[in-house]
Amino acid sequence: MDYYQTLGLQRSATDEEVKQAYRKLASKHHPDKGGDTAKFQEIQAAYEAITSGKAKHNADPAFTGFQDLHDMFNMGRKAGSRNWSFSDGWDGDVKNPDINISIPCSLEEAHFGFTKHIEFTLPDANVKNMTVTFPPGCTGDIKIRYAGEGSTLLHGKPPGDLYVKLNIAPHPVWRMQGKDLFAVLQISVWQAMFGATVKLTDIGGTEIEITVPAGTQSKSQLRLKQKGFNIRGSTSRHNAFLEIVVIIPALAEDDLNKTIIDLKEKV
């Protein structure tokens, strides 16, 4: 089965295009509206395969030519040599698809963890309200699974799961790179030459003193050990890094001309 063809899509279709095509076809062929159950299940299977990443199997000839999911399941059992399986709870019928959503949060919220009440629209156009919790130290690649909180389009079938990830907003001071935090620290020429102590607020809201060694060069880095992002599932923190930028004051035109004349006279 070509899952994208089932939904009338190109393989380059975006997530939003997949969702729109699914909603349109599911509404048209829903059994409660007089649609064909087999066709509806085929649409459900295509949507689930694309959103879960299983659609990539279509590129493998060993996975083409199946008439339905029962055919695929039986073929997989006979093959024996391939390492793939269906979602937990497979009973030979199509389950409702899983739902993936992202919620906005600040970098501080991701650092400390939070609980939020969210509202979102399911594929059947119903609005769902629920509370989600993210522990401290969750990054944008972490997904929290809420079993049974996904789609319920197909009546009489187990609901899909809900997967929630974070959309972390840019921070005015700190930026995340991998699991470490980085910030730019601007210092004067005199501070770079003779050294200095400057104050900075870390991501946890604590004001800390930073010692800038004498002779510090622009574009160098200072490491702040365990002053970075919380490590998920731990009481420790990652490191934070300061990127040093030495600010060279600009001379006024009169001062610049005077400096040039003085240099010529000395030469």
Low-confidence stretches: 57-92
Number of domains: 3
Provide the helix percentage: 25-40%
Q: Major sheet: order of its strands? A: 6-7-11-10
Q: Treating each run of at least 4 consecutive H or I residues as one helix, how many helices?
A: 7
Strand content: 25-35%
> Kindly state the mean pLDDT as a whole number?
80
Overall CATH architecture of the largest domain: Orthogonal Bundle
Q: What is the ordering of alpha helices and beta strands?
A: HHHHEHEEEEEEHEEEEH
What coarse outline follows from CA principal-axis ratios? Answer: elongated
* DSSP strand tally: 11
Distance between the termini: 83 Å
> How big is the Rg?
28 Å
CATH class designation of the largest domain = Mainly Alpha
**CATH fold label of the largest domain:** Helix Hairpins
Please give a structural write-up.
The chain has helices spanning 3-6, 15-29, 37-52, 69-79, 107-112, 189-194, 253-266; strands spanning 99-105, 114-121, 127-134, 143-146, 162-168, 175-177, 180-188, 196-201, 207-212, 221-224, 240-247. The protein has 267 residues and is of the alpha+beta class. The protein has three domains: 1-94, DnaJ domain (Helix Hairpins); 95-169, HSP40/DNAj peptide-binding domain, CATH 2.60.260.20; 175-247, Urease metallochaperone UreE, N-terminal domain (HSP40/DNAj peptide-binding domain, Sandwich). Strand 2 and strand 3 form a beta hairpin. The protein is elongated. Residues 57-92 have low confidence and may be disordered.
